[in-house]
Amino acid sequence: MNIVVCVKRTPDTETKIRVGADGTSIDSSGVKFIISPYDEFAIEAALQLKEAREEGEVVLLSMGGDDTRETLRQGLAMGADRAVLLKGESRSDGLAVAKALAAELRSMDAPLVLFGMKGADMDQQQVGPMTATLLGLPCITGVSEFETGDNTVTCRREVEGGTEILEMKLPGVITMTKGKFEPRYASLKGIMAAKRKPMDEKEAQGGEERLVVRKLAYPPERPPGRIVGEGAGAAGELVRLLREEAKAL
Amino acid sequence: MGDVLAVVEQREGKVRGISNEVVSAATELANGLGGSVHALLIGGDGVSADASGLGTYGAEKIRVAEMGPLASYHPEGYTQVVVEAVRAGEYGAVVFGATSQGKDLAPRVAAVLDVPLASDITEMGVEDGVVVAVRPVFAGKAFSTVSFSASPAMMTIRPNVFQPQERPAPGAVEVYAPEGVDPSSWMVRLKEFEATGSGVKDVSEASIVVSGGRGMKGPENWGVLEGLRDALGPDAALGASRAVVDAGWRPHGEQVGQTGKTVAPKLYFAVGISGAIQHLAGMRTSGVIVAVNKDPDAPIFQVADYGIVGDLFEVVPALAKEVTALKAGD
């Protein structure tokens, strides 16, 4: 069973975000970029599945610019077999990305397509289910662990108040969150091997962006806070302040 | 094209609180677009009985799609019903809650209708006839203002941000049986639901969060935080830092931060949490932030409004006692 994992290049989570000169995007100078952490759960799940079944190919698919090649090499270094880069840029319109991915996925032979639940930059949680819908494939989002059977997959999904256990017929799409699959570190051998693995590049067929960023701004500054006191003795004063000053209680 | 469709939610036949926020936000938008709000509720037979309250928050009419197989959320069934409801009206915008249901449903509806979707928004408005929304990005380290150039503008609203405002409207309930919904064609099936525990509030929907980090020293000590949470009442939930979730002390569902949930409660207690940038990203837009930590140099104090330096195992029980006394006097 071949598995495609759709990945995105995002800034490292340690990054301090600075608004760029154009006022609508970040200043990326000095920023370290990584595979979005949620996508790593998906890559790990795909690799474990391939290892358990001892067959099939894990293919990485991403939409991005030249810099995304490096991100795909990181995924190949983890153990994926090959990568496809769709050259194009998308900022806020997840549907435009989904269209580009769907156009490529239609020609790929993969009963299972995995995504990270969200990109750790835009936090929209939409590209996975949108892509599945465009392809007419079933999709389960926010999956923490799953197991495959003959032509089906059984998934665990956290919702408010509990966990759902869902079954889906393949071919299908799953978006992953943290859970059973702990992403492996790439070994030195993996990093060396990644340089020789196939990477195809094509133009993304996505269509125009219809959700446009007008402005990127910092969150409002919080006025400086204060230490109310030390130890249990300060509890009374804090609660009084929360009630009378902050009006939060 | 000025009407707004508010897609509301129920669980086990009861309309969920987020629905009031969705209708209220939709009403603000409808006022800007010059139309009215229709609420859409999907559920099993008889779910309409709980729906009429939505008129209080601005719904002109409340369409209720009742069908047995739709009693619980199902992506394929609900997508079909919402798409048909959108096509049956003239909507300039469609609003969902950014709950686990909404975040799963809205992208599918948007893809079928071929319109973009702004997720997890914290503000919305109409500027020169164009729908505009603000949403947190990079886990709340920045805010992005986006405008829609397709109609209807589709969005999911972050829970606990749009305070429901009473703007009484007729709220006429219209029950219908959705046509053409065929459960036998569905490719996803819910096998089982494991409940966490009744009455346990989800951290992303709570108006007060009590969050614990490595300073708690071990999972066996969480009773200390539960005591404060209980004192604060049913709107309070527990949160956790990534470190304690990774260590297996707390479930991932409680994790607040860049690879967990981004929350904005009215009141956030960070207990034994040092304040790593990824954690701050997940809670820094909370209304009031209180930090309890034995290290006066902990970064969390940079973002907190109030802090107590001390041993949390003494401070937190004292806080719980003071809160209980305060509420007893109310």
Explain the layout of strands and helices.
The complex is a heterodimer of chains A (249) and B (330).
Chain A: E1 3-6, E2 9-11, E3 33-35, H1 37-53, E4 58-64, H2 68-78, E5 82-87, H3 94-105, E6 112-116, H4 127-135, E7 139-148, E8 152-159, E9 162-169, E10 172-176, H5 188-194, E11 199-203, E12 211-217, E13 226-230, H6 235-244
Helix pairs in contact in A: 2-5, 3-4
Chain B: E1 3-7, E2 10-11, E3 14-15, H1 18-33, E4 37-43, E5 59-66, H2 75-87, E6 91-97, H3 100-113, E7 117-121, E8 123-127, E9 130-137, E10 142-148, E11 153-157, E12 172-176, E13 188-195, E14 208-212, H4 223-232, E15 236-240, H5 242-246, E16 267-271, H6 277-283, E17 288-293, H7 300-303, E18 306-309, H8 312-328
Parallel strand pairs in B: 1-4, 1-6, 4-5, 5-12, 6-11, 7-11, 14-15, 14-16, 16-17, 17-18
Antiparallel strand pairs in B: 2-3, 8-9, 9-10
Keywords for this structure?
heterodimer, A: 249 residues, alpha/beta, Rossmann fold, 6 helices, B: 330 residues, 2 domains, five-stranded parallel sheet
Number of domains of chain B: 2
Largest interface (CB < 8 Å): A-B, 88 and 93 residues
Number of strands of chain A: 13
Question: How many H/I helical runs of chain A?
Answer: 6
Biggest sheet features of chain A: 9 strands, mixed
Shape of chain B: globular
H/E series of chain B, N to C?
EEEHEEHEHEEEEEEEEHEHEHEHEH
Rg of chain A, alpha carbons: 21 Å
Spatial strand order of the main sheet of chain A: 9-8-7-10-6-1-4-5-11
The assembly state of the depicted protein chains is: heterodimer
The separation of the N and C termini of chain A measures 55 Å
3D architecture notes:
The complex is a heterodimer of chains A (249) and B (330). By secondary structure, chain A is an alpha/beta fold. Chain A has one domain (3-203): HUPs (Rossmann fold, 3-Layer(aba) Sandwich), CATH 3.40.50. Chain A has six helices and 13 strands. Chain A has helices at residues 37-53, 68-78, 94-105, 127-135, 188-194, 235-244; strands at 3-6, 9-11, 33-35, 58-64, 82-87, 112-116, 139-148, 152-159, 162-169, 172-176, 199-203, 211-217, 226-230. In chain A, the strands form two sheets. Chain A has a nine-stranded mixed β-sheet, sandwiched between helices. In chain A, helix 3 packs across helix 4. The termini of chain A are far apart. In chain A, 49% of the residues are buried. The mean pLDDT of chain A is 94. Chain B has 330 residues and is α/β, with parallel strands linked by helices. Chain B has two domains: 3-185, Rossmann fold (3-Layer(aba) Sandwich), CATH 3.40.50; 208-328, Rossmann fold, CATH 3.40.50. Helices cover 26% and strands 30% of the residues of chain B. In chain B, the strands form four sheets. In chain B, strands 7-11-6-1-4-5-12 form a seven-stranded parallel β-sheet, with helices on both faces. In chain B, a hairpin with a 2-residue loop joins strand 2 and strand 3. In chain B, helix 2 packs across helix 3 and helix 4 packs parallel to helix 8. The longest helix of chain B has 17 residues, at 312-328. Chain B is globular, with a radius of gyration of 21 Å. Chain B starts with a strand and ends with a helix. The mean pLDDT of chain B is 94. Classes of the chains: A alpha/beta (249), B alpha/beta (330). Strand 12 (211-217) of chain A pairs antiparallel with strand 10 of chain B.
